Amino acid sequence: MENTFLVGMLASIGAGLMTGIGAIPIFFTKNISQKMLDALLGFAAGVMLAATSFSLIIPSIEYAGGGLSGVLITSAGILVGGIFLDLTDKYSPHVHLLDNRQEGINASLKRIWLFIIAITIHNFPEGLAVGVGFGDNNINNGLILAIGIGLQNMPEGLAVALALVRENYSSKKAFLIALLTGLVEPIGGFLGLWMVKFFQPILPFTLAFAAGAMLFVISDEIIPETHRGGHEREATYGIMIGFVVMMILDVTLG
Known about the structure:
InterPro entries: ZIP (IPR003689). Keywords: Cell membrane, Membrane, Transmembrane, Transmembrane helix, Zinc. It is a multi-pass membrane protein. Helices cover 79% and strands 2% of the residues. The chain is an all-alpha fold. The protein has a two-stranded antiparallel sheet. Helix 2 packs antiparallel against helix 5 and helix 4 packs across helix 8.
């Protein structure tokens, strides 16, 4: 268990660092088209969707014993996870720099802090998913999830950095902020690892809870953002390619 915990933490940190790696192109060019960005974000959504399906929901049903009872436990976890993130999103003051919307309760915080809160809300479920993916000492499943989350973090890191540059932040500061937002994920990873270590009987529910939170992020934030600029077709193909890539990774590595 100790080895699993260590590997899980390292995997969570690695997945989070991929956000910074994705932001590196801003040092070389700012001229990344919105069409390309929407396609890349669509790819991220597809990877998340496949990771949710194959690495969280299916194992949740299996750990719950399968059959109708297993499906009901998993369904409850998905819904609770989605509701939890909905309430967090609704009552936490934050701003989305990608589309300039402010949400949550009013607060007299600087805009950058509102943005960081938004990224924290967004990235926390991904770290949680990686952590619970190591449940039942399943290092293989956890590593596959970490790889998938790392892949989808790269276009998100680029999108965050570009948004900050457009808000007149320097490339260096935009990169550092994008990197730091990715490091929210190890916090979620630690919580997920802790939960499955001390509350093993609720592993199926915990996996499904992480899946529900991830599904909420995909539907509520990423897909609407990719469709906002009129590049729905490119984003849709991005989702399909991301889903296929993650499905292949899950089958070949799993």
